[in-house]
Amino acid sequence: MRFSLIKLASVVCLVGCFSGIGIAALTPEQVAQLPPPAAHPVDFAKEIKPIFEASCIKCHGRGRDKGGFRLDSRATLLQGGDSGPAVIPGKSAESELITLVQGVDPDNVMPKKGSRLTPEQIGLLRAWIDQGLPWDQSISLGRQEPLNLKPHRPEIPSGPSEANPIDRFLAPYFATNHFKPPTTVNDRLFARRAWLDVVGLLPPPEALETFVADRHPDKRRQLVLSLLADSKNYAEHWLTFWNDALRNDYRGTGYIDGGRKQITSWLYSALATNLPYDRFVAELIDPKPASEGFSKGIVWRGVVNASQTPQMQAAQNISQVFMGVNLKCASCHDSFVNDFTLADAYGLAGIYADAPLEMVLCDKPTGKKAALKFIYPELGAIDSQADKPARLKQLAQCIAGAQDGRLTRTLVNRFWGKLMGRALVEPVDEMEQRAWNPDLLDWLAEDFAAHNYDLKHLLEQIMTSRAYQLPAVDLGEKTGSDYVFHGPGVRRLSAEQFRDALTSLTGIGYSSPVAEVVPSESEQKKFAVPIPVKWVWNDAQAAEKAKAGHVYFRKTIQISTPPADATAVVMCDNSFTLFVNGQKVGSGNEFKNVYLFDLRPFLKPGENLLAVDAVNNLPDNSPPTPEKTVPGTENPAGFLFYARMRQSEPGAKQTNDFASDKSWLASDTKQDGWQKPQFAADGWQPAVVLGDTGMSPWRVNKASLATKLATAYPGKVRASMVAADPLMVALGRPNREQVVTTRPSAATTLQALEMTNGGTLADILKRGAEKLLADPAAANDKLIPRLYEKALGRKPTERELALARGVVGQPPQASGVEDLLWAVTMLPEFQLIY
Amino acid sequence: MKTIVCRSPRHGSDVLNRRDFLKTASAATLSALAAGYARPLLAATEEKIKPTADTVIVLWMAGGMAHTETFDPKLYTPFKAGLKPDEVLSTFPQIDTVVDHIKLTQGLEHLAQVMDRATLIRSYTAGDLGFILHSRHQYQWHTGYAPPQTVAAPHIGSVIARALGPLNPAMPAFIDIGQRFDLGEGEELKAFHTAGFLGSEHGPFIISNPEQAVESVRPPAGMSPSRFESRDKFYRELAANSPIGQYGSDFQQQSLLRSLDNAHRLLSSPAAKAFDLALEPKASYDKYNTGKFGLGCLLARRLTEAGARFIEVTSEYIPFQYWDTHENGHTRMVDLKKSIDAPVAQLVLDLEERGLLNRTLIVLASEFSRDMMIEGKPDKKVKDQVTVPEVINDLKYYGMHRHFTDAGSVLMFGGGVKKGYLHGRTADERPCKTLEKRVIIEDLHASIYRALGISPKLSYEIEKRPFYVTRDGLGQPIQELFA
Predict the structure, then answer these.
(1) CA distance A809 to A816
(2) Does residue B185 belong to any structural domain of this protein?
(3) A803 interface with B at CB cutoff 8 Å
(4) Confidence at A661, pLDDT banded by 50, 70, 90
(5) pTM of the model
(6) Which of A400, A428, A537, B148 has the fewest beta carbons under 10 Å from its own?
(7) Contact A745 B205 (CB under 8 A)
(8) Interface pTM (ipTM) of the complex?
(9) Which CATH number fits domain A521-711: 3.40.50.1450, 2.40.50.100, 3.30.70.100, 2.60.120.260?
(10) Across the interface, do A750 and B187 touch by the CB < 8 Å criterion?
(11) Per-domain residue ranges of chain A
(12) pLDDT tens-digit profile of B368-386?
């Protein structure tokens, strides 16, 4: 985005000042026209500094040096600019500063922008020069030391030693603000917060009751710790936050032509293994192949504005995400909203460039190249002569090194904001603003660094404070600078939390993750594939060349009882549709993808039929048609299938797993009803085994099937692991084209429409209602209480129970359960975190 | 007491005190205020503009509509084997219209009959974005900015929704008809079918298939109206009896309850009937029914009657389909013209008959034009994407297959624009580029905004910076377009 060129044009012109040709001495007539010097001793701080601040320092102070002239101090003033000294002490009439503000040369008047100085102001300046430029040394108009940059560890205020330091910092704060903190929330509310904040899920009723019944005084900390130990769910909840911040998504612009790269697998394992944040950041700045997607940015083909080159995107995103400052303005021109300059932006972007970048000022090439440096040079130097890998290491050291107190403050501020609804510094991307409690911010940041940048430690620190456990307050009206912390704000479930909560209530989750992640070794072990899995087709040459067209497969299996887990893994070169007992289960059309399906809804005790319509496309990947399938269009074809079938009885070693092999039947003729159980597959031939999973050309690692299965444990695939659907979009899941550090949480009408009649939610509720009714709990009047316990962590009141019974019907009707589910999940008590 | 400046041009610059504002504001506005959404900035120089339209309908010819094959006839060269591509300027003969000085091409006979209500721009020139990508040019057309951007730029429909709000409070302010997002360059399309930083409240209400529009505004499939009503009643009782009261009322809770109220109001309002094409008399339905696009026009008419603010009907963008003619250009153009000719003309006539045309601005446009020879602009050629043979022997090669950005037609009706007016001129010889009165996207947007009474310098603050509704606030309304 670019901003008003009209405005900029005038700013840009200022480059001319003080760098122009020296001005000849004034004629006596011109001197006579100058306003007379003020007749009193001039006070620099009260009379001169305000003039400089109003009219000069936008270009000549606070780190800006148009025309080589800086008004930082008396010394730089005396030094002057490119065209020589600006003032001669004692001789105001001979000082160029006065000539310029007087406008002696109509083409060269200062200030270039804004109103001219008044004769009184010029008189004051003259007097000040004539009096020898008295300048209080403590006053600097130069670049100020950026706020919240250097590490600072304040003393923890006195207080009970067992108290959380956060509360000791807040005690005097509350006193100053005349606030007497109320008692902390009850166990149920606390547990709901804790579950949602650490793992993003509602507390399961049994776990909640156990927690409430627990008499141990330290139980809240213990709960937080046990939740933090659930690495998988922690990772899958926080994946959403980091995907937003790091602009990582599974779909989006750029992927269509290789202009973008995911970091999902890296990110997932960084979270699951709790990678220390300094290393986390270093691996994003100085990336490995798995984490380079962040700094590579999104590349569109065609001509892209200079402020949006991949290197500039990296500079902007690094500054915003890790340092909490906006470099977007400065990517185009010296910023109006902060002190960063075009040279700062190019200095950082250039670190990522293979060749020196020419600075472009509002679309106009300047012919100048910026010296490579980080936006805060005080954090470390970048060697312009070094090669790019070395520079990236230096940059990572600048940002992730112990000398950087901004990285940690930015992070703890974001986490505080996530947990409390409002951060210590707002907006969270303006970290040069003061926190409402700077010592608390500084201490949290230092404590985080001192604990090896442990994100989980930070969560524990905040969540075990009384501050976090205070009753929720209404933040709707308190977002301004007059904010005083009285407790966490009422927050809204995120799109992902809402969707995952629906899964908890109804058992209707996602069947297959889109996110490509590598789960922990133990998870993988649990899902290891214990039987051989073969590529098959109907032709032994298929791995090299097979006719384009359809091959139909059938396989009959026997099961005694419906399995607790029945997950199918399917790959097919090129596409397939899977049926179980004549019902369509799903399909896939990308031969490199591993597709997962939950077969449980389709299976029944006794004989079950699996049928697959497998398609080998033409070499250009278009679907085969009889006309187009001619000699010469042969290409590799193969089909691979594995089903994990397990009973839930503990200790049941026996598996019913099965896979594609020669026991499947194949045919290349489409016959009516071929996918149905009653069809007689007369004349069908055994499938031809091509080879093991790892065979060429597909080279599938068998362990990767386990990986896929582990992340897709039936019914447990979480919302963060799939692409956005209309429901999640309506609930505020962003498309991650830009860095997103705050999601709006207020309800909107479009969102309510999606919830009221949208197909996604309606379908979940419909299937969910059927499932709940099939549960034995439905029969003995437990359905409603159970739903309340799961959804709201409490039993229904008498009144609620009566109302709910009325709607559910006696005996319970599927439509009634559906309506109850809808109404409960629309309740503020459900959607908000109190 | 805090004051809030209500910047909607509908309200002028009324300064309301907070309490009054809260009383009158919709939940939408309310949520926008508190959630930290972009706020409008007052431009000191901004003049008040008297609106000439209340509603805008954009008819989107997705994929690049060749001007010389549609609204800007040039020398017709019939197909014969052995043609040199450079000889072909148009593959259609010219036809007369009811306006002497305006000619169209064969296949637009219905539109020819309503050109006395039209303003026809022939000099639209698309941006220079290098290698031509439909999605980038469409992004630029719809937001006024070329992608990528450092902030999520809003669609023009969202800007209008944000600046003016709904015309009928029960109607979504921005309705997008005809596009699916799960195919082709769907992700690229999503990137601009958004309210971006203006907040999702102002985003598109998407109706992918006009025939199924009613499903978006009626109870979920399989739910009877009476069950829908009793579900709502049950919900209200449940909410009223919720022990949540113990935590007191709060902004989040209010915004949730009010948003559900608003949704329920739309779903049970008479306006919802407008979405149901089955209620249209058969004779009228048939006049529009040239397929999905034609029915989209019918839906647009019905929604306009019901008080919609901004509607876009797209032919749908799918790479190499519809107006994205990389081959068989002539043959396909016959069908494409058939798909728009009668319904667009009927839309004009129906709105006129209902007295709505005067206050409804129709804008038919495309991201760029096409040519047989030139990719890009004559003086800024870009990489060819379509192979053109030396000699045309196959009908497949007869048509405008390359992406031409130096001219293009935009057809407008109603909403205060002139009637029977031709704006701009293109060359009669190849390159058939713009010769006079070049129109760029900033000025086209500024003109649409002007019709609605919105200043092209209107800006919103995002990340402390102004974001203007036309690029850098530089858009200039084309005064000559207006009566």
Answers:
(1) 6
(2) yes
(3) yes
(4) very high
(5) 0.84
(6) A428
(7) no
(8) 0.89
(9) 2.60.120.260
(10) no
(11) 5-130, 247-400, 521-711, 749-833
(12) 999 999 999 999 989 999 9
